[in-house]
Amino acid sequence: MSIVAGAGPAGASAGEAAHAQVDDQTAGHTTAHRSAFPAPVRTPRTLAAAGDLLRALAAPVRIAIVLQLLESDRCVHDLVDALGVAQPLISQHLRVLKSAGVVHGERQGREVVYSLVDDHLAHIVVDAVAHAEEEVR
Asked: pTM of the predicted model, to two decimals?
C-alpha cells in the first residue's frame, strides 16, 4: 500500500501546514477540509510509528495515567491511589507507555518516578478526551 500526498504551502513546514489545517477544522468542529493545500507526504515508517503510538495510548487506564502525569510526575503507588487500579496493572501499563516513548521513569531511592516525555503526547490525550466529552453531551 502506498500513501501519497502533496506538499504543504510554500514557506511553511509540513508540520505547520498540517497543524494549521487541524486548527481550522477544530475551531469550527467541522470535518470538511479547509486547506487549499494537499496534505504533506509522510513516509510509511513515520505512519507506522504514529500508529504504534496511538495503539499505546488506546487503553483507558493508559489515558488516565497520561492525564495524571500531565498534572505532575508520579510514582506507581501514587497512580494506584489516584486511579484505584491494582499495582501490577499500573506497572504493566507503564511498561507499555515507556516502551512506546510516552513516559520516562527515573529512579529516586526505592521508587521510580514517571513523567511524560513531552507535551505533544499530552495534547493528543487531552484532545481525545475533550472530543469524547463533546460527543457525550
From this structure: 0.72
